[in-house]
């Protein structure tokens, strides 16, 4: 059976790259929309899965307002439909600690994480068995849109530093990273499995920043890296991903992350 998937947020960084990645799977039929277009079409019943990658500025920066919560709006629309919802949440609902499981104490780190956590609870309470929540760590890779100035991730900041004449300065803390290839591979498996609930989507292991930068700098002849000793211990974190690995029968391996980072380096510096 062909599984039909709608991606909301066709112009977002994640939405654009997710569409490109999932489109390669011939067992999926992928469509991509802006939220305004999708809402006007009112075609929630035409899909098996809806994945939202879109958000409003008010949802990111202001106090929670249900009218700005796109995930909850989708959740209400699919109540009577044979459709599931995949919510892309954030690892920042947790404090910065090692080996964080889904049942760990939550302590949102910023306004966006606070609103995401509220949205998670509202969507689960509305329809638990139709809701898949993915708390995602830092994604490395993907095609970067030109002139993107806000909401830049670690990878985008790295590319900016490489283009500049300044030394690259990173605190040598450890964090949790996954490559976009690993993210796409996981999404393909999640869509094919009958699961629901909250999951950490991450490497599930600590990766020191200087190690990651080293992989990304493999083909960089003008290495401008300068590491600082990390004095802020609370910045260290990684997520426990065993729940998701067991559910979808997948392994997130450090060697795969390294391979993808080296491939990115070749693409960046050999062009």
Task: Give your account of this protein's structure.
By secondary structure, the chain is an alpha/beta fold. The chain has one domain: Rossmann fold, CATH 3.40.50.720. 37% of the residues lie in helices and 19% in strands. The strands form four sheets. Strands 2-1-3-4-5-10 form a six-stranded parallel sheet, with helices on both faces. A two-stranded parallel ribbon has the order 6-9. The longest helix has 17 residues, at 254-270. It is globular. The mean pLDDT is 90.
SSE layout:
Layout: E1 3-8, H1 13-22, E2 28-33, H2 35-41, E3 49-52, H3 57-61, H4 70-77, E4 84-90, H5 111-126, E5 131-136, E6 138-140, H6 154-163, E7 168-171, E8 174-175, E9 177-179, H7 180-192, E10 197-201, E11 207-208, H8 209-216, E12 225-228, H9 242-248, H10 254-270
Parallel strand pairs: 1-2, 1-3, 3-4, 4-5, 5-10, 6-9, 7-12
Antiparallel strand pairs: 8-11
Helix pairs in contact: 1-7, 4-5
Task: Classify the secondary structure makeup into a structural class.
Answer: alpha/beta
Question: CATH class, anyone?
Answer: Alpha Beta
Query: CATH H level: which superfamily?
Result: NAD(P)-binding Rossmann-like Domain
CATH topology heading? Rossmann fold
Number of domains: 1
- The helix fraction, in percent, is 25-40%
Number of E strands: 12
**How far apart are the first and last residues' alpha carbons, in Å?**
40 Å
Q: In the CATH hierarchy, what is the architecture at level 2?
A: 3-Layer(aba) Sandwich
Largest sheet geometry: 6 strands, parallel
Average the pLDDT over all residues and give the rounded result.
90
- Order of neighbouring strands in the sheet with most strands: 2-1-3-4-5-10
Rg is 19 Å
Low-confidence stretches: none
């Amino acid at each position: 059976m062909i599984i039909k998937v709608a991606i909301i947020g066709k112009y977002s960084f994640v939405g654009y790259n997710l569409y490109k990645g999932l489109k390669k799977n011939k067992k999926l039929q992928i469509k991509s929309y802006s939220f305004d277009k999708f809402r006007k079409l009112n075609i929630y019943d035409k899909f098996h899965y809806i994945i939202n990658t879109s958000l409003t500025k008010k949802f990111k920066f202001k106090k929670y307002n249900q009218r700005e919560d796109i995930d909850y709006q989708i959740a209400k629309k699919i109540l009577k439909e044979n459709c599931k919802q995949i919510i892309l949440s954030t690892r920042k609902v947790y404090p910065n600690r090692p080996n964080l499981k889904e049942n760990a104490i939550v302590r949102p780190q910023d306004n966006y994480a606070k609103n995401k956590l509220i949205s998670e609870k509202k969507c689960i309470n509305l329809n638990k068995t139709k809701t898949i929540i993915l708390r995602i760590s830092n994604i490395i890779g993907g095609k970067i849109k030109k002139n993107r100035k806000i909401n830049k991730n670690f990878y985008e900041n790295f590319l900016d530093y490489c283009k500049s004449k300044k030394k690259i300065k990173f605190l040598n803390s450890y964090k949790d990273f996954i490559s976009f290839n690993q993210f796409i591979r996981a999404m393909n498996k999640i869509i094919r499995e009958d699961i629901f609930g909250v999951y950490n989507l991450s490497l599930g292991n600590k990766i020191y920043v200087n190690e990651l930068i080293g992989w990304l700098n493999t083909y960089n002849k003008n290495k401008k890296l300068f590491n600082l000793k990390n004095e802020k211990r609370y910045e260290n974190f990684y997520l426990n991903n065993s729940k998701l690995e067991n559910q979808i029968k997948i392994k997130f391996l450090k060697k795969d992350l390294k391979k993808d980072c080296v491939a990115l380096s070749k693409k960046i510096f050999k062009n």
